[in-house]
Design brief:
The chain has 8 helices and 16 strands. By secondary structure, it is an alpha/beta fold. It has a single domain, classed as 4-Layer Sandwich (Metallo-beta-lactamase, Chain A), CATH 3.60.15.10. 44% of the residues are buried.
Length: 255
């Protein structure tokens, strides 16, 4: 399985930081669309035929309208957007509402529809392009789904935004061949009260969540708060855990 952590910093920036969230799986599946529409060329984006949305926050959906515009003329069939009922309602009311953006969920272009919505539910597995994808509810300030992705060789867990949680670890511990986990570490330890209020993790809590997975796997830290990225990075590395890495933007990880 190939996983790319999509960059969201402009080229030439002095240091890479994360502002938006997207992952690309096997070149044809995306998890979240925060940076997806700003990544690579329209032709390369058009290879992505399935987009899974974890929740409604803007850093996870910001570039979805741009992505749909970019790829519209490449295919005669619409890209599929997989989202919970709550996320679909927000897309209709808050994003594709005719004010923020035209209603691409209902409109057509010269080759057909822009998108097809598919409802996903926590605990119910779908198979897409040879990858079994199971959404699992995590604990964030809005309803949010993490994802467990499995193919014949390996499994990868993309937890999404969360505070301390349990259900996804319970499911992951029953999943064979978990090779990697992409887990957030948003705020430095000194901002633990804000992390608790917004249901994010600090490096100390990141370590606690790591311990909930009973099988060996590499943990990749993502979602580091841009303003305090260096401090969060130092605190994560100070944990001294050999199976912990800071995820690199644009790198193709293979598991």
């Amino acid at each position: 399985m190939k996983v790319i952590f999509v960059p969201s910093t402009c080229p030439g920036a002095a240091a890479p930081v994360q502002y938006l969230t997207s992952f690309v799986i096997n070149d044809c599946i995306a998890i979240d669309a925060g940076a997806l529409g700003f990544w690579q060329t329209p032709a390369e984006q058009a290879a992505i035929r399935h987009v899974f949305l974890s929740h409604t926050h803007i850093d996870h959906v910001a570039s979805l309208p741009i992505f749909l515009s970019n790829i519209a003329s490449f295919h005669g069939s619409p890209v599929k957007i997989y989202a919970s009922d709550v996320v679909q309602e927000s897309l209709r009311l808050d994003l594709f509402n005719g004010r923020v953006w035209p209603n691409f969920l209902e409109m057509t272009h010269e080759r057909g529809r822009f998108a097809e919505l598919v409802t996903i539910v926590s605990g119910q597995t779908l198979e897409v392009e040879g990858v079994r994808i199971t959404p699992i509810a995590v604990d964030h300030v809005v309803p949010t789904l993490g994802f467990i992705l499995e193919d014949a060789m390996s499994a990868v867990v993309i937890v999404s935004d969360t505070g301390p949680t349990q259900q996804i670890w319970t499911r992951a511990n029953r999943t064979p061949n978990v090779k990697a986990v992409f887990l957030e570490a948003t705020f430095p330890n000194e901002m633990a009260s804000l992390a608790a209020l917004t249901k994010h993790l600090t490096p100390a809590e990141f370590a606690t969540e790591m311990a909930k997975l009973t099988c060996p796997a590499t943990f990749f830290a993502v979602h580091l708060f841009a303003r305090d990225r260096e401090q969060v990075t130092q605190q994560l590395l100070a944990l001294g855990l050999p199976n912990l890495q800071i995820a690199k933007f644009g790198k193709t990880y293979e598991f």
